[in-house]
Amino acid sequence: MARMPCRRFMRPSGAGGTDMRHAFDIDGTETEVWLARDGQAYRLEGDAGRARVSLDGQGLDRELSVDSRREPVLMVIEGEVIHLHLGGRTYQVRHLDPARRFADADDSAGGDVARAPMPGTVVRVDVAVGDAVTTGDPLVVIESMKLETTIRAWHDGVIAELHVAAGQSFDRDAPLVTLGSGAV
């Protein structure tokens, strides 16, 4: 996966809080939006404009509110993918993990590097160099802006290099873990 250009991931919001940039894959198209809490709803801003959104109800049948418009929605979660049936159409939505988006292919080492999505501190390192891991295994837990994030293996492989240690601070885009493509 190619490295993303430098982008700001946080900005002050109009309500005195902080907006965070999120990326979603919607039916195969990557879409970025700014998202912030707004009471029981969220304030969303993207290329299509700005809206206040909320999802009400439980189970499969829910109601999506966009500003003052309310629309019934059927929602099924399958792993990382959310299937939505809305307005007579079906959509597949997946939140794109910032660490995965920052994975930088390193052809010379035959591995991938997980990079920090924003500045923070390493809370815990769950692996050692040479450990075999499978997709989804926890590698490193980081904290940024009082939010803990677990960086997980994005493919099967072997830990080729640890770039950080517990308690260490790091900048945005700093390398965290190199995952080699060795046999598990």
UniProtKB/TrEMBL annotation:
Keyword Methyltransferase: no
Keywords: Biotin
Source domain of life: Bacteria
The protein's name: Biotin/lipoyl-binding protein
Keyword Nucleotide-binding in annotation: no
Pfam families found in the cross-reference section: Biotin_lipoyl
Residue ranges annotated for the Lipoyl-binding domain, each copy included: 102-180
Transmembrane segments: none
